[in-house]
Amino acid sequence: MITAKDIRRILLVSGWFMILTFPILGMRVDPLSDNIIWRLKNVMWVGIGTAVLQSLPHLWLLYLSIQAWGIRLWHHFRGTSPHKIVKKKAHRDSLINRVITNPRQRAIVCAVVLLLTIIYPQVVNEYQINIMIMALLYIMLGLGLNIVVGMAGLLDLGFVAFYAVGAYTYALLNLHYGINFWMALPLGGLFAAIFGLLLGFPILRLRGDYLAIVTLGFGEIIRVVLENWTELTNGVAGIVNIPGPTFLGLGLTPSQKILYLYYLMVLFVVLTIFVVNRLQDSRLGRAWLALREDEIACQAMGIDKRRTKLAAFSLGAFWAGIAGVVFAAQNRSVYPVSFSFLESAMILSIVVLGGMGSIVGVIFGALILILLPEYLRELSQYRMLFFGAILVLMMIFRPQGLISVVRRKYDIDSIKAEKKEGGA
Amino acid sequence: MSEPILQVQNLTMDFGGIRALNKLDITVHSGEIAALIGPNGAGKTTFFNCVTGIYKPTAGDIFLTPGKGEKPVSIKGLKPNIVTSKGLSRTFQNIRLFPKMTVLENVMIGRHCRTKTFILGAIFRTPRARREEREILLHSYRLLEKVGLAEFANDFAENLSYGAQRRLEIARALATEPHLLLLDEPAAGMNPQETEDLNDLIREIAGEGLAVLLIEHDMKLVMSLSQRIFVVDYGSRIAEGTPEEIRNNPAVIKAYLGE
Ligand SMILES: Nc1ncnc2c1ncn2[C@@H]1O[C@H](COP(=O)(O)OP(=O)(O)O)[C@@H](O)[C@H]1O
Ligand SMILES: [Mg+2]
Predict the structure, then answer these.
(1) Are A302 and B138 a contacting pair at CB < 8 A?
(2) Alpha-carbon torsion (B69, B71, B77, B81), positive or negative
(3) In this predicted model, what pLDDT tens digit does every residue of A199-228 receive, in sequence order?
(4) Which of B58, B90, B215, B235 is the most exposed place for a label (fewest CB within 10 A)?
(5) Domain of residue A211, CATH code
(6) Which domain holds residue B78?
(7) For the whole model, what pTM was predicted?
(8) A225-256: per-residue pLDDT in tens?
(9) How far apart are CA A297 and CA B172, in angstroms?
(10) Do residue B143 and residue B198 come from a single domain?
(11) Is the CB of B43 within 6 Å of ligand 1?
């Protein structure tokens, strides 16, 4: 609930923000007349906005207490006990999780989604297909990073480095040896995976913040090298004229090429989901989760920490590498500036927003974070502000992400049946 | 007396200036239940951590017999996962389960060091990988039945009661197929009924040929289970013997009751 003290603090913080932002938002020099234009309205909005944001948690608490009140009242009039219901509710999975744990519903939903994905480019224009290709690319990147951050719990802030390795692998191999897209695809993934291993070795002992800082540095180093090693990478001027993917050696018109790339991306994403799903559900996937939960207990139970971490790093990097090759082929050019820290932050936001460790979550996260800014163009300059706000709000209200992870439920009856069969 | 399974000689562990273990000698024989007792802060948990490779001891030797009829090997300074794969497993005083994994999955983690499937096997689900996965599942489920947690197989480990979590830790440790099981205060926080069940469980485990080394403050449990008891105080061994001998040992009485 809001007390007088809270209100005072809210006002204080709002006033402070108004003073802080005053030089940037409150006044502007008109270059033509050399006059200062006061924009006090902007400052007022900052004040109001800050106050509203601050009171959100209070409003949330208010909402919760009203809800609790309502439930009590409801039970009071029906003469039932409130406690049972509350417990049951806590145990129920969300709608999406219930659907994906039910094999039949899952199959239906997958089929519908796939169908929609296939007819999508037929009903929208090229611009929108291109945006969707971007979104699919980020789903792939998100799923790759999800292995490292979501499953194995290793906070990697330099993921974009592997993306860059993939993109430049294709660009350079094509420039010097004329290697085509299809040959570059596995090579890009492989090189990125090797880089993942190389980065993995020195940081095996690091955890949490330290790991984050070192990976952040690694990401920046790669970009700086790409910018400055002019003889190899052509520096900031980048590499241009990279051919798009070929299709059985047929010549495609530009619009056919976009369509082709779109369907390729769909295929890659489906493949990625398939593989990540299998990994998650395997001995290795369980080891990743255990590593995330408790490193010491994990080792004490016989899991080789080094091997497990390196596997996560290199597999995550592999997907980033593949995505990099596709990125180079889609844009027909690569520049170091495409691989800045913001890119890493973006991919990480996708994973955190969607739900760490959840495949469906990552897909939602990518769609929201890539498509929303595209369709809300007016807001695009506030993009970073928007991301920041989203992440802060998520941390407060839903730290597990939009979709929380469900663990596989094993069918106990079938285990029992099998045990009898085995004669044990 | 049967052959020794764990031989610890002269084990010393310093933390900065503090000597947590001081030239400790402890030998556990195969198939026996032994207990390690002593006041809080005596160094019992530190002893477990040194033996299982979580701490690197300052000095001393640790030998483990990795199976029946095999020669003892030095496990000093080995990584925890290697020690576990040689047949030594443990539970933790402050429960260290994987809270966001299911009860069954927690036990399945214990099967890790006895199985092989890696990246390719997982992706392609080769026949071998499938067979292995089924083996992991059945073996783990059987262990859950043994500790009486089968009905909670699909619940998150964090939702179990305290006593059940301790039993789950035992099941998880058993899943690694140890020859020697180290239990760090398994009865802590249990009610009398749970403690009694634990007593039966440990007996059952030992009856299958496993050696058990137990840290415990519940003297009734210790006296009823152990064939031999080691007493440590300030990192040094102050007594060793049968429950009868320990009960009447003046040094032990002094350590426990003070002057
Ligand atoms: N990681 C550590 N760093 C410093 N001191 C430690 C560490 N672990 C244990 N100790 C010290 O070693 C002594 C023995 O602790 P412990 O083995 O936990 O005792 P017990 O399990 O017998 O109650 C204590 O004085 C404790 O403070
Ligand atoms: Mg202790």
Answers:
(1) no
(2) negative
(3) 888 888 887 788 899 999 999 999 999 999
(4) B58
(5) 1.10.3470
(6) 1-87+178-259
(7) 0.85
(8) 999 998 888 888 899 988 888 777 677 788 88
(9) 10
(10) no
(11) yes
